[in-house]
Specification:
- The protein has one domain (17-286): Rossmann fold (3-Layer(aba) Sandwich), CATH 3.40.50.300.
- α2 (34-47) crosses α12 (248-263), α6 (114-128) runs antiparallel to α13 and α8 (164-180) packs parallel to α9 (196-214).
- The termini are far apart.
- With 288 residues, it is of the alpha/beta class.
- Strands 3-4-2-5-1-6-7-8 form an eight-stranded mixed sheet, with helices on both faces.
- The mean pLDDT is 86.
- The chain is globular.
- Helix content is 49%, strand content 16%.
- β7, α9 (196-214) and β8 (219-225) form a beta-alpha-beta unit.
- It contains 13 helices and eight strands.
Amino acid sequence: MENDQAKSLRERLKTLRMQAKSIAVMSGKGGVGKSNFSLNFSLALQKAQKRVLLFDLDIGMGNIDILVGESSRLTIVDFFNKNVSLSDIISTGPNNLDYISGGTGLGTIFRLSEEKFQRFIQELERLFNAYDFVIFDMGAGISKDSLRFILCVDEIIVITTPEPTSMTDAYAAIKHICVNHETMSFSIVVNRAYNRKIGDSTFNRLAQTMKQFLKREATLLGTIPDDSTIMKAVIDQKPFLMYQPNCHASKAIFKIANDFIHRQSSSIDEKDAKPFIAKLKYFFMKGR
């Protein structure tokens, strides 16, 4: 009997591990390099032999396709307004990276008919079985609709810069999430740091503020230096990871991706083992 129970548990864990890990990349304000991080982080994960889907949910300002120099035939808006599947709107970017272009339709997700709602959930669940990581590039700040989505993910990566306004806005966004989620995990990436010392100092100030006022911990995922190569790559509409793989920013992204993969545990987090899709169903129904 005991062996049967152990076998059953192993099978259950195996099934749950098939689901992709959901990650929301967000920032407190715009212009901090969030989408550029999402793109290059996704590519770095893929280069580490991980199956990645980059999902652009930057409401009204989706720019992943611009960063890769391509124009997508279909976007997430077309899924809701036309009879196409989520698989139909997946575009193939640099290094065969799968991504879904954004649009102005995130709020529409929460106002779908019952039929469309069920179709969206079913198709999203199928996608989650096909990848190791699904990276959601969220819009800057937090709206009522995007909050419901963010509360469902497994982990949040917050992008900030050393600028005081960026740190203040990042803290405000984190606080908003903490009020609604008691166990959410936060990883911080400090972008455009002049040097490692400034990057560490920026993280420490943000982490100490979180600990003092929110009673929450944060993890430094990494620091990306202020590298002129990034702007050159953006102008050329190429991911800087592919534009110049050996530049300081690219090396930093590779390290961040490798550290992130190393951190992932094969065990289920006992604090919140509920799968992303199940949580999404709950919050969708709650917001309807």
